[in-house]
Amino acid sequence: xxxxxxxxxxxMLHRADDINSSFWAYDSENLSKDxxxxxxxxxxxxxELALAQLELQSLGAKFEMTNGLRExxxxxxxxxxxxxxxxxxxxxxxxxxxxxxxIIQNNRxxxxxxxxxxxxxxxxxxxxxxxxxxxxNIIGLEPGETVLDPFIGSxxxxxxxxxxxxxxxxxxxxxxxxxQSRVKTESIDVLxxxxxxxxxxxxxxxxxxxNSAGKTLDEVISSIPGEKEQNFYKxxxxxxxxxxxxxxxxxxxxxxxxLELMFSSVSDYAKxxxxxxxxxxxxxxxxGDSRALPLENESIDGIITSPPYSIALDxxxxxxxxxxxxxxxxxxxxxxxxxxxxxxxxxxxxxxxDIKKSLEEMHRVLKPHRYAAIIIGNAMYLxxxxxxxxxxxxxxxxxxxxxxKNIDKIIFGLYNIMQKENILIFQKI
Length: 429
Ligand SMILES: C[S@@+](CC[C@H](N)C(=O)[O-])C[C@H]1O[C@@H](n2cnc3c(N)ncnc32)[C@H](O)[C@@H]1O
Prior knowledge:
Elements (H helix, E strand, L loop, with lengths): L7 H16 L12 E4 L6 H13 L4 E3 L5 E4 L5 H7 L3 E4 L2 E2 L1 H5 L25 H10 L7 E4 L6 H9 L2 E6 L2 H12 L4 H6 L1 H9 L10 H7 L3 H21 L3 H25 L7 E5 L12 E6 L9 H4 L1 H6 L4 H5 L9 H22 E11 L2 E3 L2 E3 L1 H12 L1 E12 L5 E11 L1
Parallel strand pairs: 6-7, 6-9, 7-8, 9-10
Antiparallel strand pairs: 1-3, 1-4, 2-3, 4-5, 10-14, 11-12, 13-14
Bound molecules: S-adenosylmethionine.
């Protein structure tokens, strides 16, 4: 099978390495290795530079940006080991490669962000994992502490917390999200057991349809005793269903190809954990409603989350094929989702009510003085801009949060369409 690791991301990094010495030669400061901090080559946006500086501050480093903007000069003493272990936006600290730089080399896709298990399932509206790693640093979460994401979606917060040794509690109303978040973070616990089932699964795939002599794919999957192992194969099936529905790929081929990629990604994960001697965070992902969290008051050390952007994306229709396959009734499930209930103006009222309840819950479960990072954007509905960002800031300040940072995250997407989101960091007062 073709090894996908050498795709765009790594190639770009190597090319940048090759041209590094001449390209950055204009940097008059010509930093010596022992003072130097160097940004990763994929850092392109102003918000990323802002987060890079905030994570350095949070990790106790004093620094100065140099003329080249990509290299920072360290001022005074630093905890070098901590910086190497935790930083998200940096490639080198004093000439040594960071853990993150090593982690992102393990990428089986063409997208720089979809390293390790992040790529599993094409979920729309995923967080940028590097941003989440930086936010975990910025809001001061130490290994062993707990971050909550009450809208866990595709599990980005969970994977990044796990890698940093931070525990993560995640909820989502969508069983598909719970399944993918669990598979991305839990398969590493049972990799040998997962591999034991490979042959039988492949055998089931080669059976002609309606052949009663052998077991069908579904029968084999449901006969797997361990939940984590069974979830892995259920997810592989979901990825293939999505490939088939969205890209017209033949199901069997898509299934077998994705299965190989999933094996490789989980084994990459296991290898890098060993190589970097990572102590993984504990992960607990459940189906649940952000408006009524089954958590004790003041039990959480930090929150990183992104609620649905008003009515921007209909998560139920978007994943209809997979949710139906998992046996859910779409009209029933729809009633629990924030942002898709009701029609016309009523939909916005219901969204606002649901978001208020979710914010109150976040405030209730967070420990005093700790931080909640909320990533949100405004959406267009019925020809008008729905000002969700302003609404969230106002309401959070009413219920006892103080806005400490509001970072514009402006990016240009396909066809030069501007996408503006905000990274809001609140402190519970
Ligand atoms: C913007 S997405 C989160 C994406 C996530 N940050 C990621 O990296 O994949 C919002 C999520 O909220 C979930 N959601 C909608 N209503 C919910 C509710 N009442 N309780 C919990 N989750 C809900 C949706 O299923 C969706 O996965």
